[in-house]
Protein: Regulatory protein RecX
Organism: Nocardioides dokdonensis FR1436
Amino acid sequence: MPPPDPVAEVPHADPESVARTILLDQLTGRARSRKELSDKLAAKLVPDDVATRLLDRFEEIGLIDDEAFARSWVAARGPGEGGTGRRLAPRALSQELRRKGIDDEIVREVLDEVDPDDEEQAARALVRKKLRSLSRVDDVTATRRLVGMLARKGYGSGLCFLVVREELAAADRDAPER
């Protein structure tokens, strides 16, 4: 006869306690959007009414704040002073925030605060960093790779070509005409 299973002998916890534990665990590592938390609760089969009630309560007491989440996301990943990580352009940040369930109005409001000069400086920093690894390729290939890198990070084509052309010239290299 197998030994008794201690987990099987424990009565089922009530869904609200389970949901509260899930939410607190999720918020321990970093801030999360309401949609991310809602999706996590749904994946753990927490009943919708319990999830909504707890999400509302967590929002009410300030543990869930989509606007604050969006601001910290942009500060960490965007082109400004704090955006030393990926240095994404506002367009790419907008897509990420929308995928995380942030309301369009909040996304617009937060991204309107991004300084266009910071965006250009971030693009220049990315190009300078990448340019070091392109010393052995011809200028046409370097231009293509640099513009492609900036475009994947959400920078507009006009800014991409302007920055790449100027940074190649500063490095005594020639950017081909568009």
In short: Residues 80 and 159 are 16 Å apart (CA to CA).
